[in-house]
Input
Amino acid sequence: MPGHYDPLLVALSYAVAVFGGYVALDLAHHARAIRQGGGLWMTGAALALGAGIWSMHFIGMLAYRMETAVGYDAGLTVLSFALAVIMSGAGLFAMAHNRPHGLVLPAAGTMTGLGIVGMHYVGMAGLRMEARLSYDTALVAASVAIAIAASTAALWLAFRTTRPLERAAGAVLLGLGVVAMHYTGMAAAGMEAEVAHDAMAEHGAMPALSSSLLAALTGAGTLLLLTLALASSLLTRQRQAEKTAEQDARYRAIVDSAVDPIVVIDERGLIESYNRAAERTFGYTADEAVGRNVSMLMPEPYQTAHDGYLSRYHRTGERHIIGVGREVEGRRKDGSTFPLDLSVAEWRAGKRRLFTGIMRDITARKAAEDTILRARDEAEAAREEALRAQSAAERADRAKTKFLAAASHDLRQPLQSLFFFAHALSDKLDGHPTAPLLASMSESLNGLRVMLDSLLDVSRLDAGVVKPSVTEFALGPLLDRLAEEYAIRASEAGLRLRHVPTAAWTSSDPALVERILRNLIENAIRYSEKGTILLGCRRRNGSVRLAVYDQGIGIPADKTQDIFQEFTQLANPERDRRKGLGLGLAIVKRLAGLLGHTVTLRSEPGRGSAFLVDLPSAAPRPIPKPARAAIERPRGKGLIVIVEDDTIILLSMRAMLEEWGYDVVAAVSADEAIDTLLNIGQRPAMIVADYRLREGRTGVQAIRDIYGVCGVRVPAVVLTGDTDPARIAEVQRSGHRLLHKPVSPTILRDILSSAA
Output
């Protein structure tokens, strides 16, 4: 096209193109770096590049001086600007959101180049002048190639790194490509004069504008807008940088003030962050650790395993420790190792993948766990020792019970024969001068029997064979009878026994309650030298309290629990048998526990004691008064079978029973007794059998065998001197009456009389 260029305006067009390119690339880089608001910045980048290209084209057109007047079609001019913005913006968007490899870079360069070319030739089509434009095909093709090549090279150079210098070089290259394309396109255009002066008016075009001032204003306005856009971008990034710095400072403050080591590594395992707790824990300073492989903080085999784990994770993406806490070992700078807890989290900073490891030195915790384990082992050993001690105590207790049972049996056997012989002899020596001696011997035998019966009571309670028979009964008759019975004994001891009558009722076992009261009364008589013994009860809070008061020696406060133990006697160091064996209160404690009653002791040394027993209260009922019938003593005739392997006892019992007028079959075994019964052909009125017989047989078995011969069940009594709880339980299960040796002749006579 004929004409010439204004050099200053050409230079201005180039400056506008370069500056527009730099602003566009800078905004695109910023949009690429941030996650939120990136679309807005990409729109600004597209507008900046489109405005730079379009302004360069417009200034370049004004820089060309032609002899003909020139105007511009408004629609095509706007379309050229839109093409520059849209096409170049698409190229920038492709580069900002994708890596520059494969087809991304050529596609982005082509779109940007076509945007430049499209803007130029549409803008040229918008010219309105007195000539018709024509184009040289080769130069047009050259202009297109220049635009695409320059755009591709500029985008590659600008997005290859994030460094501002390469971004500026890309902007220079892009501006050069735009200018080169423009002026090549201008060179490709030819003009033929064929339009009249009124052609512009016919086409509605603008009047020709060729003023240098218009070009300068256009360039200045574009540069101002681009400067404002760049300044806005820089200001925003500065604020973001300050915010990031503040966040980094806050993060660093949190990390540095943390009590646990925190280490950040990259994908290669190199340490990027290392807090003060890590310095204290591992002994390395941050300067020594940052940039080195994190395996320096690990002993083998963790060191080799860590490098292998990172490599495997990059290849397969399989996670083994990320997000999962575990115990590992750490290595200090001095080479020492220690246990620690490790948890690893993965996160990303832009395109980079980072890993944060939070560690805790658990040396103290492991030591505490070891201490707890040792304490647990020691406690377990102590428990086993306690169990062994308990087992030994139980064995000793069983041995004691067996010893008492054996001793009781061996003592009762000769004592029983003495009882029977003494009773048989008393009938023959009635009125003889030696009768008082025999009476004294019988009294001694009774004292010995009482002592053995106390041992038996303890064995029976320990065996658990005593079963309470609970019923509701009146306490008044029981207290009256005991007071009447023990009044004579108290008087003989120089004491006074009195009781308070009562109409109270209770719910308990009357026989066992009587045993408790008897032991308490006998204990009061035994340990009182003067004064009064009071027996009574009173109602209190829905219960009945039985009380036995004495004015005896009293009990020290530190001995109030000891006196309920077996064989404990505080005022009998010489073991005077007249003061018992020290079993009475032990039996009271056991019986009260069996019945669920509470025994309380109040005592003051030198002033006496009070034993209190709390029983449940029951509603009173009328007491029937049976008519007294004359008791006629049975004549006692009948056949009695005695099975006893101790010959002395057998002979003494036989002599006594025959003295009473009974017929007696005396045998040392069940077989002998059966043979005798078969010979005489008579059924016995009662069977009396010792528990322990020869050849390991028992009296229970002997009675069962004799039953088989008799054909009917006749009354039977089992005699035993054994206090073994198992033996007692076995006899009671058999249903036969059980008598413990030595048996009082009076009791035996009453039993035989009732059965005959």
Remarks:
- The domain at 639-754 is CATH 3.40.50.2300 (Rossmann fold).
